[in-house]
Specification:
- The structure is a single chain.
- With 106 residues, the chain is mostly helical.
- The chain has helices spanning 2-18, 26-45, 50-71, 79-100.
- The chain is built from 4 helices and no strands.
- The longest helix is centred in the middle third of the chain and has 22 residues, at 50-71.
- The radius of gyration is 14 Å and the shape is elongated.
- It starts with a helix and ends in a 6-residue tail after the last helix.
Length: 106
């Protein structure tokens, strides 16, 4: 049941990330897609527990929602907004690495 909810959230987030408009989002969107793949791979390989994967996925959803709010005004990201998202993605990436390497297996 938890895995089904996680996979549904993964599909929704992936759709949000793939449908991100404009070229200025290329770096942000690419990083989000890569982090989604890292989470999915970690879950599939057993490096992430379901609980860890769900927590990381919720973090990714939060970043995607923040990006959507930032784009709501003019459809583009300014330099400061991009920097904020990049910082959040840096922290999320580090968390994914830590969780995948913490020797907790499902």
């Amino acid at each position: 049941m938890v895995k089904a909810k996680f996979l549904a959230a993964l599909v929704v987030t992936s759709a949000v990330i793939v449908l991100a408009p404009r070229a200025d989002a290329a770096t942000v969107s690419a990083r989000q897609r890569h982090q989604q793949l890292r989470i999915a791979h970690g879950l599939a390989s057993g490096a992430l527990t379901v609980h860890e994967a769900v927590r990381l996925q919720v973090w990714q959803l939060s970043i995607a929602r923040q990006e959507a709010r930032m784009r709501a005004d003019d459809g583009a990201l300014g330099p400061r907004e991009r920097a904020v998202l990049q910082h959040r993605l840096d922290r999320a990436s580090a968390a994914i690495w830590r969780q995948k390497h913490d020797r907790q297996h499902r």
